[in-house]
Protein: 7-deoxyloganetic acid glucosyl transferase
Amino acid sequence: MEEQDRSSQSRPPHVLIFPLPLQGHINTTINLAELLAIAGFKLTFLNSHHNHKRLVKFNNIAAHFERYPGFEFKTITDGLPLDHPRSGNWFLDMFEDTMEPKMKQSLREVLVNSSPPVDCIIADWFLGFALDVAKEVGIPIIFFCTSSPCCFWVYYSIPDIIQAGELPINGSEDMDRLITTVPGMETYLRCRDLPTFCRKLDIEDSIMKLIVKQTRKSLQADALILNTAEELDGPILSQIRTKCSRVYAVGPLHAQLNTRLNAKHGESYDHISNTLWEVDKSCIFWLNKQPNRSVIYVSFGSIASMSREQLVELWYGLLNSKTKFLLVVRPNSVIGKDGEGEDVVMELMEKSKDRGYIVNWAPQEAVLNHPAIGGFFTHNGWNSTLESVVAGVPMICWPQFADQHVNSRVVSVVWKIGLDMKDVCDSKIVEKMVNDVMVDRKEEFAKSASEMAKVTNQSVNVGGSSYSNLDCLVEDIRIMSWKKLTK
Ligand code: UDX
Structure:
């Protein structure tokens, strides 16, 4: 009977999908949106004016999504003027007072004026205000966590860590102390693996409070989507499920999208590029000339910056190692006085000609899957971490902020597919770690990384855990929207 009623619903569910206006969040959310479009949903992707302009400028995004008749981009303000540089610590500093009120108002307007009406909202877990708006207008909401589940769980547990007296941290000698109050991580999480804002002595820190607030609020939604697989984060998923009964682990999303696109259209199908920077594909031609597994790829994502001194230490370590390197240095990501940062990049480029290749922005997925790549020197942003896992590339971890410190701990001691260089930037250590991963312990790391890649890739194949979880999510959204229509 229910089946009959549902089939009488004349239109597909309309989902509004709303990412946080940052690169690492947008690309994963676009992947999720495309997977739901493949399932036949009508999709409205709500982007900021600023990011949409860049997406359209550097990618084939508009043409790509034309093939999904129900797919539409809408843009709203992120609360900042279009010419704001959006660099440095702009995001967390401006979020609550400047960005949130404007985005909240715009979201409300889009929902109220939407035709056909929106049946379900999927919002980034950090956009807690979307829950208030969803309740106001009576639309089911699912939060999507683009960061790692381990870090999400640490964020959730911070009040308990404080309550147990394990925070604040008492100086540098305390950094290796184990944190025992995060269930599931008692044996490996140290003070130095906590998000960097936990290093402040002030347990009333406003950024810490904001992140804890958003995490706890996201668990009040109808469900939570996580970009991971049961096989990667099973023990932590079990912990999160004690706080939210509907948790869908559907990742790694970029790999799941590749599986479903290939099944639908074959290998030659063009895949979406969704970056906010102009990609320099010349590095692929350079990689084509290098022997198999001989090059280390070095990149620190879309937000992290480094000082001139750190770049020089890193560069000397790479240069003195026995390995060639492909290094990404984003424009304006090296901090120095009066253009010193840019000058040093030019100088290093000139000096490294026969040992390395430097670009502003690389086609990262293609690079990680290139046979010449044998290791990834990464900041452990969650997307980069998952892309490395899927490609079976061992990592050297140099985390900077947010979820990256927890992620590097998981990579090195739980998954055992890399080394953690946390809190250090010394050319001798860089050299030693690169030689370990690329030469001296090459086979050991290659073996563990390829085993991890195998189980992860199986999870997104037909019958795998993430594949089945996505099917459940799709079905549950259909049921949610059908219930909303028949209310
Ligand atoms: C940060 C966080 O650290 C991350 O964990 C969180 O989920 C989002 O915010 P970011 O610094 O952008 O993210 O890192 P990451 O999550 O790794 O995302 C970077 C993305 O940019 C990756 O998908 C990567 O493939 C892409 N990239 C990076 C390129 O395409 N080219 C490059 O040269 C560098």
